[in-house]
């Protein structure tokens, strides 16, 4: 670790074994269990990706190895299946993450999961964690049972989140319709993140809540690259309403409001594009760390160590920006 600076990783996941067993039992067509041959860890395959059961000792060792002081934990798979089990699963995950935070003081914080298909239950869950130090923010899915974050049905939840001044990480999940031969985590995830961000812009959430802090992972998916394309509906007559025509500014002008994390961001052209569009002060260190034997965080650290930056900018990305926006 060339910088010697402690990192705050806003994008890491932890799946308790009880949750993996529950989703494999409840959704056998979506999740299957197996045991990792080398580590003996329980794995659940979800969207063709292996989700390992959380191991606190192993995770802390990995954090120490990678120069990470604090991880924000989340389990966004919850949003792939919003139904009558969502309230129970969200409480299970939120309680688990709080337990981890208490077990290793200072090393972990929790991003809250909300059963958005049940508005009163979501508001109650936010109230349950209102003054709890373990909770640093909220995690949403890029779509939640097919409902995107900018859907008007979620306005009361956004109002409560804004009142509590909580940042929201919008993590990709499989889109409602999937086509093509490539597994969704490789290409469709960042594309669905971009659709989620556009839904937030077009609904005017940044106009309703000017201080809203929304994090889009993976350098924003394709959002920075496609920034100006968001203006298509106001540049050409005849497009359906609800695509920015009623906003006081062009849709592309709101993109810089988003925060972007660096997960799988070890590509200089993409990194430079994200920094150019949203600014260094809106780039957060995030690694998407949770896979067994993953090299992503090591690659990310090596990449960031080689990017020419001022000491101030490097400190902002690795830690300072997160400290500024997290509860």
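Q: What amino acid sequence fits the structure above?
A:
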């Amino acid at each position: 670790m060339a910088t010697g600076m402690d990192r705050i990783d806003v994008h890491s996941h932890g799946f308790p074994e009880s949750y993996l067993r529950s989703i494999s039992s409840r959704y056998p067509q979506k999740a299957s269990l197996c045991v990792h041959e080398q580590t003996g860890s329980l794995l659940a395959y979800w969207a063709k990706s292996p989700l390992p059961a959380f191991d606190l000792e192993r995770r802390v060792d990995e954090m120490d190895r990678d120069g990470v002081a604090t991880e924000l934990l989340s389990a966004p798979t919850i949003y792939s299946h919003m139904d009558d089990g969502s309230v129970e699963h969200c409480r299970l995950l939120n309680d688990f993450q709080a337990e981890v935070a208490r077990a290793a003081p200072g090393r972990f914080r929790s991003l809250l999961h909300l059963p958005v298909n049940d508005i009163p239950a979501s508001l109650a869950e936010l109230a349950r964690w209102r003054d709890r130090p373990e909770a640093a923010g909220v995690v949403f899915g890029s779509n939640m049972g097919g409902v995107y974050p900018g859907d008007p049905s979620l306005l009361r939840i956004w109002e409560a989140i804004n009142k509590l001044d909580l940042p929201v990480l919008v993590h990709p999940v499989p889109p409602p319709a999937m086509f093509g031969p490539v597994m969704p985590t490789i290409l469709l995830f960042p594309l669905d993140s971009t659709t989620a961000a556009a839904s937030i812009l077009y609904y005017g959430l940044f106009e309703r809540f000017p201080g809203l802090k929304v994090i889009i992972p993976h350098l924003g998916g394709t959002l920075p690259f496609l920034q100006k394309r968001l203006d298509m509906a106001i540049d050409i007559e005849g497009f359906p309403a609800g695509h920015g025509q009623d906003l006081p500014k062009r849709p592309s002008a709101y993109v810089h409001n988003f925060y972007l994390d660096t997960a799988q961001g070890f590509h200089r052209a993409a990194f430079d594009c994200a920094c150019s569009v949203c600014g260094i002060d809106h780039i957060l260190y995030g690694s998407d760390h949770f896979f067994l034997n993953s090299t992503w965080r090591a690659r990310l650290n090596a990449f960031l160590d080689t990017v020419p930056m001022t000491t101030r900018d490097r400190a902002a990305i690795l830690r300072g920006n997160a400290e500024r926006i997290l509860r």
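Q: And what stands out in the fold?
A: The chain is about 40% helix and 15% strand.
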